[in-house]
Design brief:
Length: 329
């Protein structure tokens, strides 16, 4: 009986990620370099704009590089989902309610003011109003996974700075889909269709959130109680991953998967299994977030920096500086 040839590409990618986590990152730690920056640097080196670009000249490099970033995207998205789930475990609906002024007060202010200032700069640089608005909204956003991971590594998530940063990031996650739908009104579709799509998406999102909360309160505690009676570690891991992925997919249509997993974490935060779930998910979260950071590094074309270093550095400094001034104010 003939067997199909073994596809080793997946194992190669796994080895690169495990090598980064087990060998490269400890070296960065000794050099006092943030693991976040370390994973991104690994992505730059092994990605299509790094060593992989030399494969036509040095074919043996294909064994230690990843030419197609899309191949690790599913695990990268899972990293963000697990990270938000873990944050939900550290919170609760009660604590989130206490933070409502930060989430729905400071969050919208940050997005609107930063977008307005950056759009104004884009207009001064010659962009039309629509293009400037898109640029402003894009640069007003931040990477939840990167910021939260940095705050977590520095043990600052539970400080005033950490809570405020998380509140702004949470609103940004909530605002992504409405912003994309609003921007769709400037496309080839009609305004009526875009408004209808916006209403349908919001309705689906609200129904999904309501269903997650209702089913979670009814099902999660009995589910974990029955699994705990088996005293099976494997079943407990399966139940944890079921909750994480299930709640993430439930909100994928109208909102982000990360928001759904956050709600799943919030629901489990009020149960007696919170600490055990946290210990179970933590190793998966660490590796998956590492894959996400590597994927970010792989998307960075360092040739642009080499071709126009002053322009890139000046643009980055200007964007960060303007956002810093607005947020500080």
């Amino acid at each position: 009986m003939e067997t199909a040839p073994l596809d080793t590409s997946f194992y190669k990618q796994a080895l690169i990620v495990l090598g980064a986590a087990g060998v490269v990152i400890p070296i960065f730690h000794r050099l006092r370099v943030s693991p976040v920056l370390g994973f991104m640097l690994v992505g730059i080196v092994v990605g299509p704009f790094g060593l992989a670009s030399l494969i036509p000249h040095l074919p043996w490099l294909s064994a230690i590089t990843i030419s197609t970033p899309a191949s690790i995207e599913p695990i990268a998205h899972l990293g963000v989902v697990l990270l938000l789930f873990m944050i939900g475990l550290e919170l609760s609906f009660e604590r989130l309610w206490v933070m409502r002024r930060l989430v729905f007060g400071l969050g919208p202010l940050q997005v609107m003011l930063c977008a307005a200032v950056l759009a104004g700069v884009a207009i001064l640089l010659g962009q039309n109003r629509i293009s400037a608005g898109v640029i402003g909204l894009a640069f007003a956003m931040s990477s939840t996974a990167v910021v939260i991971q940095v705050l977590s590594d520095e043990k600052r998530l539970n400080t005033a700075t950490g809570r405020t940063s998380f509140a702004i990031l949470l609103f940004q996650d909530l605002a992504v889909v409405p912003i994309l739908l609003v921007l769709g009104t400037f496309g080839p579709t009609t305004h009526v269709n875009s408004v209808a799509a916006f209403g349908v998406a919001v309705g689906q999102a609200l129904l999904a959130v309501a269903a997650i909360v209702a089913l979670g309160r009814l099902v999660l505690r009995p589910l974990f109680r029955s699994v705990a009676r088996t005293r099976s570690v494997e079943l407990f891991v399966a139940a944890c991953l079921l909750v994480v992925i299930g709640t993430a997919l439930a909100t994928a249509a109208g909102l982000s998967m990360a928001l759904g997993s956050l709600i799943g974490g919030l629901l489990l935060a009020g149960t007696e299994y919170r600490r055990q779930v946290e210990v179970t998910i933590e190793p998966f979260k660490g590796l998956a977030v590492g894959v996400f950071l590597i994927s970010i590094g792989m998307s960075l074309d360092i040739r642009t920096l080499g071709a126009q270093p002053l322009l890139v550095l000046a643009a980055v400094t200007a964007v960060v500086g303007l956002k810093l001034i607005v947020v500080t104010g």
